């Protein structure tokens, strides 16, 4: 039998809750305040503490601080939603809104005690650490921090919000959380909210009855119900329509789903992992995302760093992906040439890991050399992020440069002195580029000047020397 401590100052509620739990084979103790709970009871002998949020003397969240490894379930009114979310950030395992019905309380108690038991069992066999996660590559500090947080949050029932740019691998994080959770043996359902038409999203997620709308030829249980007992991953949750957000909030708050066209709801037990590249807080202020849903899903937030912030991980990823695609294509393992390594490390990768995957696959397919991948095969020149400059814009840039150089004759436009005397570094850079850009590629220019291609591009922009379109074909 599990031991439960109920901390509630209202005698009627406390007594009713004790009788409910005892009828369902739980051993129950009572306390009217945090002080009474800590002075009269040994907290370590309990499997669960159920505490009201508002108590005389000290708030119920103080129970979280003194409970140690014992899970704390917070009870609160609907009006205290933000306070409840804050309590979960402090370490509460979950919260339940008052007034609650008996079935709702019993389901929550059973779920929390079950998860706590599984988490304790898992803790005995493996300690939380920053060791890498299958499917995720990288040993930079930002990734080690991410691994550590995944290991911590995965065994808990907490809702997780994964934030990161497009292509960083947010679904990999969701799968890692699912695989390390007690739900690993149950299904994980992944849904891209941006890929489903707005008119169909509610039906896809929550199901519908036959004839509920035009085209509903048969009954559908929906993806939320399909994830019962497991994990529901909602990618790009910021694209979810407001109506669907309201239905999702009910799933999270009440643990039940009502299909479109149905008059009855049924219970579901799903853990939500949501992902987005958008600022949900800003969207909620603009009325484009429900504030109550935002606070409900933003219990634990994991931030997935962009590829450009992952240091040497970029090369490790590139070499691993290249090896994978060579194996798939039946080619001998290729290596990256020094020029291609320079290009990979200086490129900003706006498409992140997904773009890197495409570059490595493309290179492996097109490579005719049996030894290495050259820079040209990558097709990730910095020119890809340059803004195309038409003739009119180029003339305007040239005019601005002339106006700022009052010590020179404006009529000479971008011409440079014939003598090398008294040339500054910028003068020399400009003269060399103008004289050789028609016959040299960007890589050759950068090598001759002793700078990276990124540095070359940045100086071009600063000095107003746009690259000629025909130069990209010069070798």
Using brief descriptors, characterize the structure shown:
elongated, alpha/beta, 5-stranded parallel sheet, disordered C terminus, 20 helices, 475 residues, 13% strand
Secondary structure layout:
Blueprint: E1 3-7, H1 11-23, E2 27-31, H2 34-40, E3 48-52, H3 62-66, E4 72-77, H4 81-90, E5 94-98, H5 102-125, H6 141-153, E6 160-164, H7 170-179, E7 188-192, H8 201-206, H9 223-226, E8 231-235, H10 242-254, E9 256-257, E10 266-267, E11 271-276, H11 280-285, H12 291-297, E12 300-304, H13 313-329, E13 335-336, H14 338-346, H15 352-366, E14 372-373, H16 375-378, H17 391-404, H18 425-436, H19 442-449, H20 453-463
Parallel strand pairs: 1-2, 1-3, 3-4, 4-5, 6-11, 6-12, 7-8, 8-11, 13-14
Antiparallel strand pairs: 9-10
Helix pairs in contact: 13-15
Rg (CA only) = 30 Å
| Mean pLDDT reading | 80
**Beta strand %:** 5-15%
Q: Uncertain runs with pLDDT below 50, 5 residues or more?
A: 124-129, 382-423, 470-475
Task: Characterise the protein shown here.
The protein has 475 residues and is an alpha/beta fold. It contains 20 helices and 14 strands. The strands form four sheets. The protein has a five-stranded parallel sheet, sandwiched between helices. The radius of gyration is 30 Å and the shape is elongated. The C terminus is likely disordered.
